[in-house]
Specification:
Number of strands: 20
Helix content: 25-40%
Structural class: alpha/beta
Oligomer: single chain
Shape: elongated
Bound molecules: ligand BES, manganese (II) ion, zinc ion
Length: 500
Amino acid sequence: MKIEIVDSKTPKRGSLVLAVGEGRQLGPFGQQVDKACGGALAKAMAAAARFTGGKGQWLDVLVPGGGLSRVLLAGLGKTTEIKAMAYEALGADAVKRLAVSGETDLAIAAEVLKGTLLPAGEAAARAALGARLGSYRFDKYRTRLKDKDKPSLKAVNVLTAAAPAAKKLHAPLDKLAAGVELTRNLVTEPANIIYPESLAAECRKLAKLGVKVEVLGEREMKKLGMGALLGVGQGSARESKLVVMQWNGGKKGGKPVSFVGKGVCFDTGGISIKPSAGMEEMKWDMGGAGAVIGAMAAIAGRKAKANVVGVVALVENMPSGTAQRPGDIVTSMSGQTIEVLNTDAEGRLILCDAMWYTQQRFKPQAMVDLATLTGAIIIALGHEHAGLFSNNDRLAEQLAASGKVEDEQLWRLPLSDAYDEGLKSPIADMQNIAGPGFGAGSITAAQFLQRFVVDKTPWAHLDIAGTAWSKKDRPTVPKGATGFGVRLLNRLVADHYEDR
Ligand code: BES
Ligand code: MN
Ligand code: ZN
């Protein structure tokens, strides 16, 4: 499907989507189309008494005579309340309505209506972004898909009165969409296809965008003393990997902002094995790493003027004769020892070494880790917000604000010494889980990570266990792997870490 931004002109064929404001308000282009078809649109709206142009309402109008096959009227609601996101939803919903309809050509008139405060170029750029994000599918393994179920749309033209401005705004958004798609693909792939080595190979592909990619294997990690990370991977037949991705688009030598991702390519729980029901979901336990990889692709793709480092810790958590046992004590790269009471609390064990390495090597001005870390965050926040933990109010606020703008929302939870108490071990420097009855599972996981934050490095931890995968269809986020975190991190860099 090819998505293009073009000047507003009534298409000669295919379907046309027009934005309508509350009160059946058409824009100048919509009025022109209505006139050209003899007032058929106004008539159809009047006849369908319940179609008022309210948010989410749709009305299909068949257009008599040659040319256009139909016009779809899309309600955007009260024009004074329409925001940029509404145009993303418009693009996404439009494409979804016609995706497998047999229609091949779609034009979306992304008009800004009277009363809405939004540049015309922005509306069109967002509609094009929405069309791409909303049309995401993963059909790779469907070898017997019937023709009638295959996508039919070939060309989507976003019509606008401000094509040059829209194209300029759309270029970086299209790179962002590519990053989100990459993350969705990687997270969707099963664990027999995406495992540490093959995921590292996917990271290497970012070199073509100008990202410097290094892959460390178990030998190198052993030398560095990453006993916590290596302990998690030791039960797997697959070799653990640590991938370091650098995008140096900022000032030479300027301290980078850093992202660290949990990449457990499959989490069986290890010897503290998970129940079999639902275990297949643990293929997406590399969602944090997936988000970091997609964000690096977006940031490099749009050539951000920033220095950004992405580090992903890639392992497979398996039970076997060589697996780590409950009670084992490992020594992390920081030198701190950890009593592994539960081998299913493995994410923190790989992140602690990846975070330590990132800080030692890059002295980042900020560090954000992303991880599908705890089931408890789903109990606390469901699937609407990811958990945010931070030692730095400014970074926390930047992240929360970025999440709002991009609709990848965060909710901050506390950290404190009282929670940290739960990690005291009778035999080592800490244990990897708090004792029974302590509660606050997501917070104690974050406290564990905080023990590996050097001095005052501004650090934030995002627990994305509830948001990396979705069972609910949303306009720009279809069911399945969401790509959560890519838009957020890209926005964080754009708004706070880029040279102007
Ligand atoms: N990967 C899981 C967390 C998870 C659960 C992600 C559900 C997505 C959906 C993590 O490694 C884990 O197993 N956490 C344990 C921690 C516990 C042993 C302290 C959990 O949440 O039960
Ligand atoms: Mn686990
Ligand atoms: Zn896990």
